[in-house]
Amino acid sequence: MSVRILALALGNFAVATGAYVIAGMLSDIASHTDVTVSLAGQLVTVYALTYALAAPVLSTLFGHCDRRRLLAAALVLCAAGNLLTALAPGFEALLAARVVTAIGAATFTPLAVVTAADLVAPHRRGSAVALVVTGSTLATVLGVPAGVALAGPVGPQGVYAAIALLGLAAMATLPALPRTDPLPRIPLRARFGVLRGATVPAVLGVSLLAAVSDFAVYTFVVPVLSDLGSPDPGELSALLVVYGLAGALGNVASGWATDRIGSDATMLGALVLLAAGLFALPFTGGAVVPTVAALALWGLGGWGVLPAVQAKLIDAAPAAAGSAVALNAAVMWLGMGAGGIVGGGVIEAAGTGTLAVVGGVIAVAALAPLAVAARATRRGAPAGLAAAAGWAAAPVADAGTGTGVVFATDPVPTTDATGPSVPTQEGYAPVREEVGEAAPSPVGGPAVAVGEARMAADV
C-alpha cells in the first residue's frame, strides 16, 4: 500500500468530514438559526452546487500549478471555510461559509483522485481510486456519527472548529507526494471535448442519478431515522456508523470488483443494492435488525457506485482522463445538490415517510444510462477526446489535466503544422517508467523527463 495514496485518502477524509457531518446536525443547526429542517438542508445544496460549478473553472485557472502546493492550498481553504462555519452568527453567514469550504473541496478531491490513478499501474487504478474515496466513506463512519454525538455537548460550532483543525493536520502528510513541474493551461472548452461520443456522457448520467438518489435521503437521514422509531442520539449515532461501515466496505469491494469483473457489472450491482436498501427502509418500522439491514444495503450500494464510475471514465477517455474525472466530480456534486432540493421538496409535500421510496425510484432510473454506456462500450464507440478540440496526445508527457494533475494520457497543446491528431490507446507509453527516463514528444517539442512524478507506486 503506497504512503502517497494514504496521504491523499487522509486529506479526502478531512474534506469529506466537513462536507457530510452537517447531515447529522441539521436539527441542531435549524434550531440554532431559527429555520426549518428542510431549509437547513439547503446548506448541503449550496455546498454541492458551488462544488459542481467551481470544479471545472478552478481546474482551468490553476491546473498548471504544482499539485502538492495546490492540494495544500485547497486544504487551507477548506479549514478556513469550516472555521467560518463555526463562527457564523446566522443562517446567511452559514451559507457564505459553506461556499468557501466547497471551493476548497472542489479543488482538492478531483485532484486527489486523478493523482492516485496516475501513481499506479493501469490495472491497479480501481483499487487506488477506491482507497482515496475510502477517505470519504470513513467520514461517514466517523464524522457524521461523531457530529450527532458531539452536537449536544459542544454544539455545531465546536464540531466545525475541530474539523478545521483536522484539515490543517492532514496537510502534514502532503510531503509524501512527489513534486511536479508547472503544467500548461488547457482551455475550458478543450476540457469539455471529453463529452464527445456516447460512453462518457452516459457514465456521467449514472453518477448524477446515483448522487440524487443517495443524497435526497442522506441529507435528511437523521429526521428520517428519527421518524421511523424516534431513537435517542446514541442510537442514531450507532445506526449512522452501520451505514458508514457498509459504505466503506462497499467502496473497497467496488474497487476490487472493478479490477476483476469490470466497471459495468460493478455499477449494476451497486445500483441494485442502493435501490433495495432505500426501498426497504420505510418498511422497517424502526425495528433494529431490519433497519440495520436496510442501512447496510444502502451504504454498500451508494458508496459502491463511485469507484466503478471513476475507473470507467478513466478507461473510456484515456486521452483526457483528468478532464473526465473533474467533470464527474462536478456532476456528482450537482446530483448531491439536486438531491437536497428533491429531499426538501418531498418532506414539505409528503413528509419523511416517502422520501426513501423516491430515492429508490431514482436509483432504478440510473440503470438506463448504465445500459447506454455498456452498449456503447460493446460497440466500440469512441470516447470523448480532448484532441477533437485541437489538442494532441503525447506519450508520458507532463500535460495539464482536468484537475491540475500530471496524467500519463492527458492532452497537451499541439504545435504540429499539420493540425491536431486524434490519440489512440496504443499510442501511449506505459505509466510505469524508470526515474529520469525521457519520453520524446510527438509534436516536435523537447523530450520530457519522466521522474518521480511519473512513477507508479503499488497500492
TrEMBL record:
Its main location: membrane. It is found in: Cell membrane. Keywords: Cell membrane, Membrane, Transmembrane, Transmembrane helix. GO terms for molecular function: transmembrane transporter activity. CDD domains: MFS_NepI_like (cd17324). Residues 4-377 form the Major facilitator superfamily (MFS) profile domain. This is MFS transporter. GO terms for cellular component: plasma membrane. The chain crosses the membrane at residues 39-58, 70-89, 95-121, 128-152, 158-177, 198-221, 236-256, 268-289, 295-313, 325-347, 353-374. It is a multi-pass membrane protein. It comes from the Bacteria. InterPro entries: MFS, MFS_dom, MFS_Efflux_Transporters, MFS_trans_sf.
